[in-house]
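Field notebook, page 259. I keep forgetting to write these up properly, so this time I am using the form the group agreed on. The chain and the ligand, NAP, are recorded exactly as supplied. Prediction of the bound pose follows.
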Amino acid sequence: MSERKLALVTGASSGIGREIAQLAAADGYDLIVAADETLVDSAAGLAANGVDVESVEADLSTAAGVERLLAAASGRPIDVLVANAGHGLGRGFLDQDVAEWRHVIDTNITGTLLLLQPVLKQMAARGQGKVLITGSIAGHLAGSFQAVYNGSKAFVDSFAAAIGNELKDSGVTITCLKPGPTDTNFFARAGMLDTKVGQSEKDDPADVAKTGWDAMKDGEHVVVHGLKNKAQVLASGVLSEAQTAEMHRKQAEPGSGQS
Ligand SMILES: NC(=O)c1ccc[n+]([C@@H]2O[C@H](COP(=O)([O-])OP(=O)(O)OC[C@H]3O[C@@H](n4cnc5c(N)ncnc54)[C@H](OP(=O)(O)O)[C@@H]3O)[C@@H](O)[C@H]2O)c1
């Protein structure tokens, strides 16, 4: 068996997760990478760093998908867990199908917790481990026209801080990365390309990933990527939810972008 450490990264097929997986490989971690579409190309690129890479296709909105992913570790201890898989969903709540918004909650919240709990138990028993969870500055904003997603990230942001505190004397650290709008597949997948935020200039996912990876290595509890996003989080602390909801409407309402 390899003597290298093992990192498990979800949502590694694209965007922020793919960049985090690259950083992990460059740091010499063997990898288990997961997404619900094929990872053959990105797995080959990661292995070029001289580490072992196993890719798992699993829908992490389901318990069966999470179990399949965990089984890929074959009992080998996980040193780093990056719980990053997630997706958004635009449009007004009344225009969203139940299956669509449930998939957001099942992926971003339920699937994330189903993965975190067994890995954290194992890490706590060993007295070591690092966990990076991708939350969002969206968790600080009432998300008109992306209401379920922002609510899911409010859960993730809060949950990460809470379990980080519960585990503070365990040798296990929990870091919550909070990106703002980032140039990934996120807005296309959420059906938000006709919105102002969907068309705005965005952060580079490689920069966002580095912010999160470095903060995780330092054992920081939370990191917001970028000055503009930090300012937005600060502002959300003094604005009412009605005000952040109105701000969000201007950014996320269908058709708010230039056609
Ligand atoms: N982009 C932004 O503006 C932004 C801002 C703040 C936070 N975030 C968060 O950052 C994380 C990464 O998103 P991204 O921006 O990098 O978007 P992305 O390019 O769409 O990547 C999302 C990743 O998550 C995976 N994923 C989504 N649902 C899944 C499921 N049910 N089962 C397994 N894998 C699933 C995707 O795999 P498949 O493609 O195979 O489905 C993909 O690898 C998400 O948690 C997102 O909420 C993004």
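OBSERVATIONS:
- The chain has ten helices and seven strands.
- The mean pLDDT is 95.
FOLLOW-UP: compare against the apo run.
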